[in-house]
Amino acid sequence: MRSIFLALALVFLASAAALADPPANPLAGDQETFDRAAAEYDAGRYENAYGMFLYLADHNDVAAMRNVALMKRKGLGCERDPEGARNYFKQAAEGGLATAAADLADMLLNGEGGPADPKGALHWLKLAAAARHPRAEYQLALMYETGNLVPKDIQTAESLYEDAAGAGMKEAYTRLTALKAGGLQSSGSAAPVSAPTVTPAPATSVSALNSAHATAVPQTTPGAAGGFVLQIGSYQSEADAMESWRIYKIAHAAAAEFEANVQRADLPGKGTWYRLRIGPFATLVDANALCTKLKASGGDCFPARQ
Length: 306
Known about the structure:
54% of the residues lie in helices and 10% in strands. By secondary structure, it is α+β, with helices and mostly antiparallel strands. Helix 6 runs antiparallel to helix 7 and helix 9 packs across helix 10 (170-181). It has 2 domains: 1-200, Serine Threonine Protein Phosphatase 5, Tetratricopeptide repeat (Alpha Horseshoe), CATH 1.25.40.10; 216-305, Sporulation related repeat (Alpha-Beta Plaits), CATH 3.30.70. It contains 14 helices and 4 strands. A 4-stranded antiparallel β-sheet has the order 2-3-1-4, with helices on one face. The longest helix is centred in the N-terminal third of the chain and has 16 residues, at 3-18.
């Protein structure tokens, strides 16, 4: 992992550590209620969905908090309330949900639901980018490219664009290509980037946008023998890796039931790194199923062999 993502991750860890431990959630794991709410939403019964999500949100469910914010922002099943949407996005972001941090930053940048607050947006963009949320990476890269709110740094912008492009963000690929074509690349060592394959986004669905509650269980059980794992980060110390895991499993409940392990890797020219992995999974299909859910809520992961 490039140094920029280590730096952003450390910012994320420091900020998260400063938050009080989240209160006990009496509805933690209330998969049935969350799924019913998501089904009501997908069926267009927004008032029913909103009521259930609001109940879950008021009992400290961060995924439901974000759904309430999304519905308040658009006026689905409730009166349109951008200010209230901001508040719920903030609660979910403080609970560790990277997608909510990216949403909140977007509202703060655009002055939606209150006065524009670019400096406040920068804080949340850095947290979301630390979790490698593609849209947050792209918006933060624009700031580094132009020197808006942060010192101009083409190398950092390039790294962020490259990662967002690798996740399939077409706009990031376009900007990255322009930087390289314009001779602004400062690292001098980045490999050429292939155009991402972009899958059109489906119609907005709270069940698709949130996976803090699992909506599809991988066809394996925690601890089952298998040849695959998911790598969710790489760090310069074992302590950083384990602290990241502590925060990650709070933000992504679907990952918490799996065992994590840290593997040391000595990389030529890059030093010693510690890979944080979860699993094992019986098949690559199983690993990819969980990774898809984790990415939907802003989590970073990719499958690897044990």
